[in-house]
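Quick illustration for those who missed Monday's session on complexes.
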Amino acid sequence: MAEAGRGNSTATASMKELEAQVKTCQLCRLSKTRTQSVPGQGNTRTEVMFIGEGPGYHEDKQGLPFVGAAGQFLNELLGIAGLARDTTYITNVVKCRPPNNRDPMPDEIAACAPYLERQIALINPRVIVTLGRYSMAKFFPGERISQIHGTARMVDGRLCVAMYHPAAGLHQASLADIIRDDFRKLPVYLEQSRKVAAPPIEVAEDRVEEAVEARESVVYEPSTGVVLEEPAPQIREEAAPTLQPTPQPEERGVASSTTPVGRSKRAPKKSDYKQASFFEL
Ligand code: URA
Ligand code: SF4
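Prediction with uracil bound:
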């Protein structure tokens, strides 16, 4: 494929390097309780990346994402979307299993964020599918999954689609068909994403830097992982335009107060304004 940052052998080599770093990472307390970390799995040439929450019991044992019951359902959903699993890339917000599958803490998410940002930059996917609350919060701050599931929004030049976590369909049978219907829309989203310019790689690289800075300078309350102090916000120049570059003032307000990652309480940046409105199929 022609687009920069997508599908070259350098990206594959760098991903292997990153996966090796994650394997030995000890940057947060989750390293103490994991069996092994779960960097991610798939094809760096993919146009579609899936981001879950964090490894569960089986993922922690096998070192691979979505291999338990939720993974079985995800496989079915990928089939519905017409995607072969090994043509996609699948990863999580945190790469190590939180004990007893508790929610990841804000400092753990921030510690792990540079890995995720780097994976996004290396793959430079056209479409990111968020699975569950924590990956949704990164791209759809302040939104509720019950309101936005199955819808998409341009963020940093790529189409982000909010999906229920597959496990939600296992716990609540009534959701399973809703999730299937949402995944049926994915081919259309992918088609739409191909009609706009490739995502600007510079923006993704900036995100990596921001995440590293946040990791190094954010101060946390040790027992809860709650953020006490954050780095000063930076203002960045406007990058490439997206589908609908109209500012959404109400989104900006929410964005600056609710994201649980390192960027959470910073002042809005110009890049935030590049979030286009939702569109539904
Ligand atoms: N749930 C997730 O969010 N990720 C996995 O890898 C497995 C289950
Ligand atoms: Fe490192 Fe992420 Fe694992 Fe924490 S969760 S130890 S930051 S790889």
